[in-house]
Write a structure and sequence with these properties.
382 residues; alpha/beta; Purple Acid Phosphatase, chain A, domain 2; six-stranded mixed beta sheet; 10 helices
Length: 382
Amino acid sequence: MMVQILHISDTHLGKRQHSLAEREKDIYDVFSQLIDIAIKERVDAVIHSGDLFDVSNPTTNALVIAVKILKKLKDANIPFLSIPGDHDTPKRKGYIIPHNILTELDLIKILNYDKPYIIKDIEIYGIPHIPTVSKNVLVSTLSSLKPKSSRSILLLHQGVKQILPYDGSWQMELGSLPKGFGYYALGHLHTRWRLIQDDGSIIAIAGSPDIMREEEIEGYEKFGKGAYLIDFSKDLPTLTTINTTVRPQKVVTINTKNLKNDISKIKSDLLKNNKGENNKPILHIIVEGERMRKDLLYRELLPLNDIALYYRIYKDETIQSVDNLTYTSPQDRGLDKIIIEYLTKYEKFNEDEANLILQMIKNVDSEDIVNEILKRLTGVNL
Protein backbone atom coordinates (compact mmCIF):
# COMPACT_ATOMS: atom_id res chain seq x y z
CA MET A 1 0.00 0.00 0.00
CA MET A 2 1.43 3.36 -1.03
CA VAL A 3 1.64 6.02 1.69
CA GLN A 4 3.27 9.45 1.33
CA ILE A 5 4.07 11.60 4.35
CA LEU A 6 5.71 15.04 4.53
CA HIS A 7 8.27 15.38 7.35
CA ILE A 8 8.80 18.96 8.55
CA SER A 9 10.33 20.36 11.72
CA ASP A 10 11.50 23.38 13.70
CA THR A 11 9.22 25.93 12.04
CA HIS A 12 9.53 28.31 15.04
CA LEU A 13 6.36 30.24 14.22
CA GLY A 14 6.48 33.73 15.72
CA LYS A 15 10.28 34.02 15.61
CA ARG A 16 11.42 37.55 14.78
CA GLN A 17 15.09 37.28 13.85
CA HIS A 18 17.01 40.47 14.74
CA SER A 19 13.63 41.95 15.87
CA LEU A 20 12.58 42.36 12.22
CA ALA A 21 8.87 42.21 11.39
CA GLU A 22 9.85 41.09 7.89
CA ARG A 23 11.59 38.03 9.31
CA GLU A 24 8.54 37.04 11.34
CA LYS A 25 6.49 37.20 8.14
CA ASP A 26 9.15 35.13 6.33
CA ILE A 27 8.75 32.35 8.89
CA TYR A 28 4.97 32.28 8.37
CA ASP A 29 5.38 32.34 4.58
CA VAL A 30 7.77 29.37 4.61
CA PHE A 31 5.38 27.37 6.82
CA SER A 32 2.59 28.19 4.38
CA GLN A 33 4.83 26.99 1.51
CA LEU A 34 5.22 23.61 3.22
CA ILE A 35 1.49 23.22 3.79
CA ASP A 36 0.78 24.13 0.15
CA ILE A 37 3.33 21.51 -0.94
CA ALA A 38 1.62 18.89 1.23
CA ILE A 39 -1.73 19.69 -0.37
CA LYS A 40 -0.30 19.73 -3.89
CA GLU A 41 1.44 16.36 -3.37
CA ARG A 42 -1.75 14.94 -1.81
CA VAL A 43 0.19 13.43 1.06
CA ASP A 44 -1.52 11.15 3.56
CA ALA A 45 -0.19 13.15 6.52
CA VAL A 46 2.22 15.86 7.64
CA ILE A 47 4.48 14.99 10.58
CA HIS A 48 6.22 17.72 12.57
CA SER A 49 9.10 16.75 14.85
CA GLY A 50 8.96 19.64 17.33
CA ASP A 51 9.37 23.40 17.84
CA LEU A 52 6.24 24.32 15.96
CA PHE A 53 6.36 27.69 17.77
CA ASP A 54 9.38 29.72 18.79
CA VAL A 55 8.17 30.12 22.38
CA SER A 56 5.77 28.22 24.62
CA ASN A 57 3.52 31.29 24.98
CA PRO A 58 3.26 32.46 21.36
CA THR A 59 1.74 35.80 20.46
CA THR A 60 -1.87 36.08 19.34
CA ASN A 61 -0.54 36.87 15.88
CA ALA A 62 1.46 33.62 15.73
CA LEU A 63 -1.53 31.57 16.91
CA VAL A 64 -3.98 33.17 14.50
CA ILE A 65 -1.68 32.67 11.51
CA ALA A 66 -0.99 29.06 12.54
CA VAL A 67 -4.75 28.45 12.67
CA LYS A 68 -5.30 29.98 9.21
CA ILE A 69 -2.52 27.94 7.60
CA LEU A 70 -3.41 24.65 9.31
CA LYS A 71 -7.06 25.09 8.37
CA LYS A 72 -6.02 24.74 4.71
CA LEU A 73 -4.60 21.33 5.58
CA LYS A 74 -7.71 20.30 7.48
CA ASP A 75 -9.93 21.35 4.57
CA ALA A 76 -7.83 19.03 2.37
CA ASN A 77 -8.41 16.16 4.87
CA ILE A 78 -4.69 15.83 5.63
CA PRO A 79 -3.86 15.24 9.31
CA PHE A 80 -1.07 17.23 10.97
CA LEU A 81 0.75 15.10 13.55
CA SER A 82 3.21 16.71 15.95
CA ILE A 83 5.22 16.47 19.15
CA PRO A 84 6.21 19.45 21.31
CA GLY A 85 9.87 20.49 21.15
CA ASP A 86 11.89 22.28 23.81
CA HIS A 87 10.76 25.70 22.53
CA ASP A 88 7.12 24.59 22.70
CA THR A 89 7.41 23.32 26.27
CA PRO A 90 6.65 25.68 29.20
CA LYS A 91 9.37 25.84 31.83
CA ARG A 92 6.86 26.12 34.69
CA LYS A 93 4.50 23.45 35.93
CA GLY A 94 0.82 23.96 35.28
CA TYR A 95 1.23 25.72 31.93
CA ILE A 96 -0.06 24.05 28.78
CA ILE A 97 1.75 23.68 25.48
CA PRO A 98 0.39 25.84 22.61
CA HIS A 99 -0.40 22.63 20.69
CA ASN A 100 -3.35 22.10 23.03
CA ILE A 101 -5.13 25.12 21.56
CA LEU A 102 -4.73 23.75 18.04
CA THR A 103 -5.87 20.31 19.23
CA GLU A 104 -9.08 21.81 20.63
CA LEU A 105 -9.72 23.28 17.17
CA ASP A 106 -9.10 19.83 15.63
CA LEU A 107 -6.22 21.18 13.54
CA ILE A 108 -3.44 18.94 14.86
CA LYS A 109 -2.94 15.61 16.62
CA ILE A 110 -0.34 15.32 19.40
CA LEU A 111 1.50 12.03 19.13
CA ASN A 112 2.46 9.82 22.06
CA TYR A 113 4.56 6.72 22.60
CA ASP A 114 2.12 4.34 24.28
CA LYS A 115 -0.39 4.23 21.43
CA PRO A 116 0.52 4.84 17.78
CA TYR A 117 -1.47 6.95 15.35
CA ILE A 118 -2.34 4.85 12.30
CA ILE A 119 -2.27 6.21 8.73
CA LYS A 120 -3.49 3.40 6.48
CA ASP A 121 -1.07 0.67 7.68
CA ILE A 122 1.71 2.99 8.96
CA GLU A 123 2.22 3.21 12.74
CA ILE A 124 3.39 6.64 13.92
CA TYR A 125 4.79 7.12 17.44
CA GLY A 126 6.06 10.33 19.03
CA ILE A 127 7.98 11.28 22.17
CA PRO A 128 7.87 14.92 23.32
CA HIS A 129 11.16 16.67 24.09
CA ILE A 130 12.76 15.29 27.26
CA PRO A 131 15.39 17.56 28.90
CA THR A 132 19.00 16.57 29.56
CA VAL A 133 18.39 16.03 33.28
CA SER A 134 15.97 13.21 32.36
CA LYS A 135 18.19 11.30 29.92
CA ASN A 136 17.47 8.04 31.72
CA VAL A 137 13.71 8.51 31.27
CA LEU A 138 14.24 9.03 27.54
CA VAL A 139 16.41 5.91 27.17
CA SER A 140 13.87 3.85 29.13
CA THR A 141 10.99 5.14 27.01
CA LEU A 142 12.84 4.38 23.79
CA SER A 143 13.64 0.84 24.87
CA SER A 144 9.93 0.15 25.54
CA LEU A 145 8.83 0.84 21.94
CA LYS A 146 8.07 -2.19 19.78
CA PRO A 147 6.59 -1.41 16.35
CA LYS A 148 4.77 -4.20 14.50
CA SER A 149 6.87 -3.78 11.34
CA SER A 150 9.23 -1.49 9.47
CA ARG A 151 6.18 0.33 8.12
CA SER A 152 6.43 2.62 11.10
CA ILE A 153 7.72 6.07 12.10
CA LEU A 154 9.12 7.45 15.36
CA LEU A 155 9.21 11.23 15.99
CA LEU A 156 11.78 12.67 18.41
CA HIS A 157 13.01 16.15 19.31
CA GLN A 158 16.37 15.55 21.02
CA GLY A 159 20.03 16.41 20.76
CA VAL A 160 22.05 13.44 19.46
CA LYS A 161 25.59 12.88 20.77
CA GLN A 162 27.06 11.77 17.44
CA ILE A 163 25.84 14.98 15.75
CA LEU A 164 25.93 17.49 18.64
CA PRO A 165 28.75 16.19 20.89
CA TYR A 166 29.02 19.14 23.30
CA ASP A 167 28.39 18.66 27.01
CA GLY A 168 24.80 19.46 27.93
CA SER A 169 23.64 19.69 24.31
CA TRP A 170 22.56 16.07 23.76
CA GLN A 171 20.15 13.73 25.48
CA MET A 172 20.61 10.49 23.53
CA GLU A 173 22.88 8.48 21.26
CA LEU A 174 21.98 6.90 17.94
CA GLY A 175 22.49 3.49 19.54
CA SER A 176 19.59 4.22 21.90
CA LEU A 177 17.07 4.25 19.06
CA PRO A 178 14.75 1.24 19.26
CA LYS A 179 15.03 -1.35 16.51
CA GLY A 180 12.26 -2.10 14.05
CA PHE A 181 11.13 1.33 12.85
CA GLY A 182 11.43 2.14 9.16
CA TYR A 183 11.82 5.89 9.63
CA TYR A 184 13.13 7.94 12.56
CA ALA A 185 11.96 11.57 12.20
CA LEU A 186 14.25 13.79 14.25
CA GLY A 187 13.95 17.45 15.13
CA HIS A 188 15.89 19.99 17.22
CA LEU A 189 18.89 20.37 14.88
CA HIS A 190 18.34 22.93 12.12
CA THR A 191 20.59 21.53 9.37
CA ARG A 192 19.38 18.62 7.25
CA TRP A 193 20.96 15.25 7.90
CA ARG A 194 20.10 11.64 7.12
CA LEU A 195 21.53 8.18 7.57
CA ILE A 196 20.48 4.92 5.91
CA GLN A 197 21.18 2.12 8.38
CA ASP A 198 22.31 -1.41 7.59
CA ASP A 199 18.73 -2.72 7.89
CA GLY A 200 17.49 -0.15 5.33
CA SER A 201 15.75 2.08 7.87
CA ILE A 202 16.34 5.84 7.68
CA ILE A 203 17.23 8.31 10.41
CA ALA A 204 16.49 11.83 9.15
CA ILE A 205 16.68 15.37 10.48
CA ALA A 206 14.40 17.59 8.39
CA GLY A 207 15.98 20.76 9.79
CA SER A 208 14.36 24.17 9.98
CA PRO A 209 12.63 25.34 6.76
CA ASP A 210 14.24 28.80 7.02
CA ILE A 211 17.60 30.16 8.20
CA MET A 212 17.02 30.87 11.88
CA ARG A 213 20.64 31.69 12.83
CA GLU A 214 23.80 32.67 10.94
CA GLU A 215 25.38 29.31 11.96
CA GLU A 216 22.92 27.62 9.58
CA ILE A 217 24.07 29.46 6.45
CA GLU A 218 26.81 26.97 5.58
CA GLY A 219 24.39 24.05 5.92
CA TYR A 220 21.78 25.86 3.86
CA GLU A 221 24.26 26.47 1.04
CA LYS A 222 25.13 22.73 1.00
CA PHE A 223 21.76 21.10 1.62
CA GLY A 224 19.04 23.74 1.18
CA LYS A 225 16.07 24.20 3.51
CA GLY A 226 12.66 22.56 3.49
CA ALA A 227 11.28 19.09 4.18
CA TYR A 228 11.47 15.40 3.32
CA LEU A 229 8.77 13.58 1.40
CA ILE A 230 8.61 10.01 2.73
CA ASP A 231 7.39 7.35 0.30
CA PHE A 232 6.23 4.09 1.90
CA SER A 233 5.37 2.30 -1.36
CA LYS A 234 7.41 -0.63 -0.05
CA ASP A 235 8.15 -1.96 3.42
CA LEU A 236 11.06 0.46 3.80
CA PRO A 237 10.79 4.15 2.95
CA THR A 238 12.50 6.26 0.30
CA LEU A 239 13.06 10.01 0.63
CA THR A 240 12.67 12.95 -1.71
CA THR A 241 14.13 16.32 -0.73
CA ILE A 242 11.65 19.21 -0.85
CA ASN A 243 13.15 22.72 -0.87
CA THR A 244 11.56 25.95 0.30
CA THR A 245 12.31 29.43 -1.01
CA VAL A 246 13.88 31.51 1.75
CA ARG A 247 15.27 35.01 2.16
CA PRO A 248 19.03 34.82 1.47
CA GLN A 249 21.50 35.37 4.29
CA LYS A 250 25.22 35.76 3.70
CA VAL A 251 28.39 36.02 5.73
CA VAL A 252 30.66 38.59 4.05
CA THR A 253 34.13 39.89 4.90
CA ILE A 254 35.38 43.47 4.64
CA ASN A 255 38.82 44.89 5.38
CA THR A 256 39.18 48.37 6.85
CA LYS A 257 42.22 48.92 4.60
CA ASN A 258 40.05 48.46 1.50
CA LEU A 259 36.65 49.40 2.89
CA LYS A 260 35.04 51.29 0.01
CA ASN A 261 36.07 48.71 -2.60
CA ASP A 262 34.91 45.78 -0.44
CA ILE A 263 31.52 47.38 0.19
CA SER A 264 31.14 48.27 -3.48
CA LYS A 265 31.87 44.66 -4.48
CA ILE A 266 29.37 43.28 -1.96
CA LYS A 267 26.73 45.66 -3.27
CA SER A 268 27.51 44.74 -6.88
CA ASP A 269 27.30 41.00 -6.13
CA LEU A 270 23.98 41.40 -4.36
CA LEU A 271 22.51 43.48 -7.19
CA LYS A 272 23.23 40.63 -9.63
CA ASN A 273 21.06 38.28 -7.58
CA ASN A 274 18.44 40.80 -6.51
CA LYS A 275 14.92 39.35 -6.75
CA GLY A 276 13.00 42.34 -5.49
CA GLU A 277 12.15 44.19 -2.29
CA ASN A 278 10.65 41.12 -0.61
CA ASN A 279 13.86 39.12 -1.00
CA LYS A 280 16.48 41.59 0.23
CA PRO A 281 19.22 39.62 2.00
CA ILE A 282 20.51 39.75 5.56
CA LEU A 283 24.27 40.29 5.84
CA HIS A 284 26.50 39.09 8.66
CA ILE A 285 29.73 41.06 8.33
CA ILE A 286 33.21 39.99 9.43
CA VAL A 287 35.56 42.98 9.79
CA GLU A 288 39.30 42.50 9.28
CA GLY A 289 42.27 44.85 9.04
CA GLU A 290 43.23 47.77 11.25
CA ARG A 291 41.15 48.88 14.22
CA MET A 292 38.53 51.47 13.26
CA ARG A 293 36.05 53.57 15.17
CA LYS A 294 32.59 52.00 15.04
CA ASP A 295 30.77 55.21 14.14
CA LEU A 296 33.04 55.73 11.12
CA LEU A 297 32.71 52.09 10.12
CA TYR A 298 28.91 52.18 10.21
CA ARG A 299 28.94 55.41 8.22
CA GLU A 300 30.89 53.60 5.48
CA LEU A 301 28.38 50.74 5.56
CA LEU A 302 25.39 53.01 4.84
CA PRO A 303 25.31 52.20 1.06
CA LEU A 304 24.28 48.65 2.00
CA ASN A 305 20.91 50.03 3.13
CA ASP A 306 19.90 50.21 -0.52
CA ILE A 307 20.37 46.50 -1.16
CA ALA A 308 20.11 44.63 2.19
CA LEU A 309 17.14 44.24 4.52
CA TYR A 310 19.50 44.22 7.49
CA TYR A 311 23.23 44.01 8.19
CA ARG A 312 25.31 43.71 11.32
CA ILE A 313 28.89 43.27 12.48
CA TYR A 314 29.00 39.53 13.08
CA LYS A 315 32.67 39.33 14.03
CA ASP A 316 35.17 42.13 14.57
CA GLU A 317 38.60 40.60 14.06
CA THR A 318 40.33 43.98 14.33
CA ILE A 319 39.79 44.23 18.09
CA GLN A 320 43.01 44.24 20.10
CA SER A 321 43.52 41.77 22.90
CA VAL A 322 42.92 43.32 26.30
CA ASP A 323 46.24 41.78 27.38
CA ASN A 324 48.08 44.17 25.05
CA LEU A 325 46.50 47.33 26.43
CA THR A 326 48.30 49.46 28.97
CA TYR A 327 46.32 51.92 31.01
CA THR A 328 47.16 54.31 33.83
CA SER A 329 44.26 55.59 35.85
CA PRO A 330 44.14 59.38 36.46
CA GLN A 331 45.50 60.30 39.89
CA ASP A 332 42.19 61.69 41.11
CA ARG A 333 40.48 58.52 39.77
CA GLY A 334 37.43 60.53 38.70
CA LEU A 335 35.10 58.37 36.57
CA ASP A 336 34.60 61.09 33.95
CA LYS A 337 38.34 61.37 33.38
CA ILE A 338 38.72 57.58 33.17
CA ILE A 339 36.03 57.44 30.47
CA ILE A 340 37.48 60.38 28.52
CA GLU A 341 41.00 58.95 28.63
CA TYR A 342 39.82 55.54 27.44
CA LEU A 343 37.78 57.00 24.57
CA THR A 344 40.60 59.24 23.34
CA LYS A 345 43.53 56.88 23.91
CA TYR A 346 42.11 53.52 22.83
CA GLU A 347 38.97 54.26 20.82
CA LYS A 348 40.65 57.16 18.97
CA PHE A 349 37.91 59.74 19.48
CA ASN A 350 38.97 63.36 19.71
CA GLU A 351 38.29 65.24 22.95
CA ASP A 352 35.07 66.89 21.75
CA GLU A 353 33.64 63.57 20.56
CA ALA A 354 34.64 61.88 23.81
CA ASN A 355 32.83 64.55 25.81
CA LEU A 356 29.70 64.09 23.69
CA ILE A 357 29.78 60.35 24.38
CA LEU A 358 30.18 61.04 28.09
CA GLN A 359 27.11 63.30 27.97
CA MET A 360 25.20 60.56 26.18
CA ILE A 361 26.10 58.07 28.93
CA LYS A 362 24.94 60.53 31.60
CA ASN A 363 21.64 61.14 29.79
CA VAL A 364 20.92 57.55 28.80
CA ASP A 365 17.32 57.83 30.08
CA SER A 366 16.54 60.74 27.76
CA GLU A 367 15.87 59.47 24.25
CA ASP A 368 15.76 62.98 22.77
CA ILE A 369 19.18 63.95 24.15
CA VAL A 370 20.76 60.63 23.15
CA ASN A 371 19.40 60.92 19.60
CA GLU A 372 20.63 64.50 19.30
CA ILE A 373 24.15 63.50 20.43
CA LEU A 374 24.20 60.50 18.09
CA LYS A 375 23.15 62.79 15.24
CA ARG A 376 26.06 65.12 16.00
CA LEU A 377 28.51 62.22 16.28
CA THR A 378 27.50 60.31 13.17
CA GLY A 379 25.89 62.90 10.95
CA VAL A 380 22.97 60.47 10.50
CA ASN A 381 19.34 61.41 11.22
CA LEU A 382 17.73 58.86 13.57
